[in-house]
Amino acid sequence: YIWFFSNIFSSNKYFWRFFGNSENASNVQKEKEKKIIMSSNLSAIFYLISGVLFILALRGLSSPETSRQGNFFGILGMIIAVTVTFLSIGNFSSGFIYVLIFLLIGGLVGAFIAYKIPMTAMPELVAGFHSLVGLAAVFVAISAFLNPEAFNLGSSGDINLGSLIEMSIGAAVGAITFSGSIIAFLKLQGIMSGAPIMFKGQ
């Protein structure tokens, strides 16, 4: 997600270079490639490590005895993911400033809520925040489908099959995560009945 916002906000200069002078169009991709600091293979390895750390974080947070360790894994995984994202893009211009602003705003809001929320309401807080993760995954998948050029996935109407499958899985998992987290939040708050929701033919 950080890569998405950074790439969108920093792409204006490439658009205007292309629009203002067609002779520079062929140099845009070369200029982007020169700015990339980390290779895609190395980035994939670090992203895999951060993903494993996120899984370990969820596992640790499932028990009070291992919650601190889970928090540490989650923080470490996010630091790796954010760092690798910027190194992979290699763009530290205006896009970096926008991402820092959003990180600061989100961090302050999260810290304020975490400080004010009572421990008895922590399950509801986790469910509410987790729903935003699923919603963000859906938005990223939709954005990648509508504007594949920004994600280097091809062009509109000509997206790689593997990327289409990845987008579909991401949107489906994100939607399930969002709806499931919302239902969990409503049940924990007592707004919805705690009885299992059954569908006809289930």
Can you characterise this structure?
This protein is mainly alpha-helical. The chain is built from 8 helices and 2 strands, in the order αααααααββα. Helix content is 74%, strand content 2%.
Number of helices: 8
Q: Structural class given helices, strands, pairing?
A: mainly alpha
Low-confidence stretches: 1-34
Sheet with the most strands? 2 strands, antiparallel
Average pLDDT score: 76
- The whole-angstrom Rg is 20 Å
Approximate strand percentage: under 5%
Annotation keywords:
8 helices; two-stranded antiparallel sheet; disordered N terminus; 74% helix; globular
Topology diagram in text:
Elements: H1 2-10, H2 12-20, H3 25-35, H4 40-61, H5 67-89, H6 94-116, H7 122-146, E1 154-155, E2 158-159, H8 161-188
Antiparallel strand pairs: 1-2
In short:
With 202 residues, this protein is mainly alpha-helical. The chain is 74% helix and 2% strand.
